[in-house]
Amino acid sequence: PPISFVVHKVEENFRSTRKLFFSQQIRYGNVVSVGPVDRLEAVRDTFRHAWKGYKEHAWGHDELKPVSKSYGEWFGLGLTLVDSLDTMYILGLKEEFEEAKNWVETQLSFSKNVDVNLFESTIRILGGLLSTYHLTGDQLFLEKAKDIGSRLMPAFKTPSKIPYSDVNIGKGTAHPPRWTSDSTLAEVTSIQLEFRELSRLTQEPHYQEVVNEVMKLVHKLPGKHDGLVPMFINTNSGQFTHKGVFTLGARADSYYEYLLKQWIQGGKTEDDLLEDYLQAVEGVKKHLLRQTGPSRLTFVGELSHNRFNPKMDHLVCFLPGTLALGAHNGLPGDHMDLALQLMETCHQMYAQMETGLSPEIAHFNLQARDGRDVDVKPADRHNLLRPETVESLFYMYRFTKDTKYRDWGWDILQSFNKYTKVSSGGYTSINNVRDPVNPGPRDKMESFFLGETLKYLYLLFSDDMELLSLDKYVFNTEAHPLPIWPSPPK
Ligand code: DMJ
After folding, report:
1. Structural domains of the chain in order of their starting residue, each with its CATH number
2. Which of 123, 257, 314, 449 to mutate to test the pocket of ligand 1 (most atoms within 8 A of CB)?
3. 322: three-class secondary structure by DSSP
4. What is the tens place of the pLDDT at every residue in 21-37?
5. Which of 223, 152, 146, 154 minimizes the C-alpha distance to 185?
6. Which residue ranges have their beta carbon within 6 Å of ligand 1?
């Protein structure tokens, strides 16, 4: 579409979002019944407390270290601030948003001799800037998005066209990690929503072309197992490496998520994406699904050279939400059945822990008819304030209106406040979800706690189904909403 049309659309979106937001505020401001009101305000309070720590001790830096009242630097690009912009806007935290916007305008510079990870900076920074542009209509965010987007492009100059993992955004050079010429599968296949949207907004096709090329290559590549993909791909040969290991967790997760979401973003016309997604769900059902002995909880395990491992990363808890989104978009009803079952399992990963918070990785009990469903290895007991379960709860509530999903989300929010809140400001990752007496603060607040976890909790508790309607927006893997493209005129 011509740029004027796009801008018009964006402004229209902005106006309706703003209107909804204000009507919601007025409505909630005067409402007598307390349920949803208190919960929305509780999320805002949680955000404000997290922001207090960030503002006082880490302002303009990547991540807050709330216990030592200091900060950590990863890319040196104000990661938490940029990742949080649209959350502040959606939660109606106007003052905080304006202050952060001012920092973006006056301080954020991508002209820096620094190595950034292509995937992480795409989903958090490019994604955050694009969604904030759509919500606000403010050109500042589009200009910044173009700047970072163009600086990431050298990553795609490889012999195979599979991008390198790292880019120096100041020098315009890119390279793989020091120890390998492989890239991670999820990383090269979960940057498409953002670069495709950048092309649409700028009318510059090269952003879209480079990421579509990656999908085309992966679509045709041998080494898949009924739609399941290996975790690495070589940037020289363009072939899968470390074949025979299949997971829906770390290093593969968002490949599956973005097959569906790109198909939705593009108006459900790109058949290869749909075909790969449907095949992958069948592959999951055939090879990775099992039930626990004690309570018959359905979970997604891993396959390593034909050996099944009953291990599931918390990261896999994106899957119920994605399956439900697919079913909502006309995909088979049994996807929704599976979503319902997996949602229960992800809930149990929280509910069965002493702190009410999930471990990073759960092992499931296949054998015993009695005993626990979930076992946690000592090395896997940490919780990083991750979003995947509350993300799925948001989708499940939107599609079923079953209030138990809100209650489960509410329990999680309360556990975060009980075990991860640092009194002086901020929230921290913890070492041990099984020890409520000493959960072991790790002294790090990940940017996705503000970018994703709190945003999804807010949307879960909001009664306003038009606030970022799932028929109008698709959320990137860092919870930044991007518009579903309008269909071309017939
Ligand atoms: C986020 O950066 C994204 O959600 C990504 O897809 C997975 N890891 C973190 C959150 O857990």
Report:
1. 39-483 (1.50.10.10)
2. 123
3. helix
4. 333 332 333 333 445 45
5. 223
6. 254, 315, 386-387, 448, 452, 477-478
